[in-house]
Amino acid sequence: MQTVNLAFEQFGEVGNPPLIILHGFFASSRNWRYVGEKLAINFCVYILDARNHGTSPHAEMMTYETMAADVTLFISQHKLKNVTLMGHSMGGKTAMWVALNDSECVQNLIVVDIAPIDYKHSFNPLIQALQNLPLAELANRKQAELWLAEWIPELSYRQFLLQNLVLKRDGYQWRIDLAIFQRNAPHILRFPTAENGRQFVGRTLFLAGENSHYLRKNSIETLFPFAQIQVIPNTDHWIHVQQPEAFLNALTDFLKI
Fold this sequence. Notes:
Blueprint: E1 8-11, E2 18-22, H1 33-39, E3 44-48, H2 64-77, E4 83-88, H3 90-101, E5 106-112, H4 124-132, H5 141-148, H6 155-161, E6 165-168, E7 171-174, H7 178-189, E8 203-209, E9 227-232, H8 239-242, H9 244-255
Parallel strand pairs: 2-3, 2-4, 4-5, 5-8, 8-9
Antiparallel strand pairs: 1-3, 6-7
């Protein structure tokens, strides 16, 4: 399996216990800086850019098997042990697959608003809207935001997605390869089938948004028999953004720091 060397941001002293954060689809390490800085008091925090995201290399394949292999390589390269591994959405699925297949390197697993199941919604309309954005006609980022409003009504989500739009000498360009995203979107919605009887029996916390429908409680215990589940009030899928203090308090209680 071909791996890539992931770009990352680091917060905290190297001697502290390692904590790795994995972001979601279309996101990057920059979306987790606030959380990383807060956790750096007690941990050495590594926020990774997944392949095809942020400043990490692009790769044609973007499955959970390949993304987990990238994370395992990172852990090995940095000689990390007893890692606390936390992932949101796509990153949560990646974290679960690492824990299930390389459990010896994971001490604590934290999964944010996602379950180890296949989902049925489609990313195609979203990706198509981004592909149709007339980059050559854009004079500023505000124009892009207004143009996408018809297809992506939620302002905060448009702004989130437009973090991937960068200004180069010859105009605006996507930092991400939307064609790769489109081809791999079905992989992002699925969760690989674990070998018969495979479980992660380490300390595990699933955090769910009160108004989100991503976390299916009955899908967890087979693979993660000792998992705790906590619901964060007044949140949907973006728990760490909508209620950052409640999110951090939940992490603190679980990690006993």
